[in-house]
Design goal:
Elements (H helix, E strand, L loop, with lengths): L7 H4 L20 E9 L20 E4 L6 E7 L5 E8 L9 E4 H6 L8 E10 L8 E2 L8 E8 L2 H11 L6 E8 L2 E11 L2 H14 L4 E4 L5
Parallel strand pairs: 1-5, 2-4, 7-11
Antiparallel strand pairs: 1-6, 2-5, 3-4, 3-6, 8-10, 8-11, 9-10
């Protein structure tokens, strides 16, 4: 079944497929392109998405490698003409030859569940600006090196998934393990940066894409 066979090992490798036409949110240029869609559901139910939202297979959402979180897409199954509107809140898919992963609900609407994959037409409808995050700074008046923290988890698989998603764009993403009061936390960070200005530039980009971004000293436990 498409989208349900990603393992921890598979997530450690980024598989690059053909990138679709870019969509410039600020300039308002809408894109239409044809790609291969797959779907994901029960194996990820209740887990954090790359945007930080909890994945709900019954909501009409999707995963894409490039579009900012909150991007609204209309996806049409070219084999039957059925369409669904969904919102990007995750990164993926991480399987070669697939370009967009629909939630179970979105895939069901266009009869994608049975086939598993299908060629689709994707049209960008705009963006929900509420996904844009404000950058937080925890180390503005201290010396570096600095890092940008994007997530913190008690389950390593959630941290690994976010790291892999970030590495589609940010090669310096890493997971830092920290033991606090007997609990291990897996913090996902991008960096390190010698100067606060460089960290801020990256953090602002992350925030605009929809990631929660906190600038802090690379050795700070937050």
């Amino acid at each position: 079944m498409a989208g349900l066979h990603l393992t921890l090992c598979a997530l450690l490798f980024t598989v690059v497929s053909c990138a679709p036409a870019k969509y410039d949110i600020q300039q308002g240029r809408l894109a239409k392109f044809y790609v291969v869609a797959s779907w994901y559901g029960p194996d990820f139910q209740g887990r954090p998405t790359a945007s930080g939202e909890i994945f709900d297979m019954h909501a009409r959402t999707c995963a894409h490698k490039e579009y900012p979180f909150g991007t609204k897409l209309r996806v049409t199954n070219t084999s039957n003409g059925k369409s669904v509107e969904c919102i990007v809140n995750d990164r993926g898919p991480f399987v070669k030859g697939r370009d967009i992963d629909l939630s179970y609900a979105a895939a069901k609407d266009i009869d994608l569940i049975g086939p598993g994959t299908a060629p689709v037409e994707v049209e960008v409808q705009g963006r929900d600006a509420s996904y844009i995050k404000t950058v937080k700074v925890q180390a503005a008046n201290t010396g570096g090196p600095f890092a940008v923290q994007v997530g913190s988890f008690t389950e390593s698989i959630n941290a690994v998934r976010l790291k892999v998603a970030l590495r589609l764009t940010y090669a310096s993403a890493y997971v830092q393990e920290t033991l606090i009061n007997g609990t291990v936390y897996y913090r996902v960070r991008v960096g390190n940066f010698d100067q606060i200005t460089a960290a801020l530039q990256t953090a602002e980009k992350l925030g605009h894409e929809g990631y929660p971004a906190i600038i802090l000293r690379a050795d700070m436990q937050l």
